[in-house]
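Sharing a chain and its predicted structure for anyone who wants a worked example. Both blocks are below, sequence first, tokens second.
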Amino acid sequence: MQKEGDLEGRRSINRLTRFITLIWAIIQSVSLAIYLKPILFDWNYTLALEIVVWLTTGAMIILWLSEFITDYGLGNGASVLIYTNIISNLPNLSKTIFENQANFTALSGIVFILLLFATLYGIVFLQEGLRIIPLISSKQLNQSSFQDTAISENYIPLRFNQAGVMPIILTTAVLVVPNYASNLGLLPKFDFPINLEFFSIFYWVGYFLLILLFSSFYSTIVLNPKDMSDQLQKMSVAIPGIRPGIQTTFYLKQVMKRTTLVGATILATLATIPNFLESTLNITNLNGLSSTSLLILAGVVLDLIREVKNIYFSNVYNSMY
């Protein structure tokens, strides 16, 4: 459906997205209603049904609002809503940091500032970084004097971060499932002596590896080298030094693997190092401002700036012609 790109295909994708959102909202609301059973004194099935109905209704309202912003506003509606939620929590975060003066030492302040600037720099590099693949058309092959200019002007931009924050979200969801199931009593509890420091290191290593895995998996869904090779062959466009067909597909696959590996490594590092240092150095002031939040903030701002520029230049072009 996504490959066809027609109106009916987009409608089918939207219907499927709404259906999956509804099912997932019902599952989460039912789980939350069961989880609240030991806490609420007058818990009954009527109250549980009300909790499920209200939470599911709220989720569907958020979905409608995000689609409305996407259609009639700037940027992606879901990202804008998440961005608004993170920004609204920044005053409370600042208040928490300044109130915990006992735990906020000079080392914590220095580490916090360095991590903030390093993470922001890495996020901007990750969002704006490109691997440029030059292209040349069949007509330009006969124009040797303009060949270098044509190669520099026509290219395929491959982003380092094709998946955005989806690998972090999927990794967090996978790692939370065992603990969540244990709290609901679905898993047996074992009383084994556990070294918390070793368990923390093992957890963050698994977190790093899962982000690499999900980044590679998601990038193969977003971009298909075989489809890109077929489109280039239909347009009579080739990569300099690479024959059209199987060689182009193999070349694009190799370049995408290397680009994805670099982007996934940077993304996993940005997501893991702040949390790892927070747990090892006992810096609690980073709570509420994780690298995922910073990645969402920087990504939404960059997308809004890019979209505003496109609107501005399109208006300038329309006024000139």
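Comments welcome. The first helix runs from residue 7 to 35.
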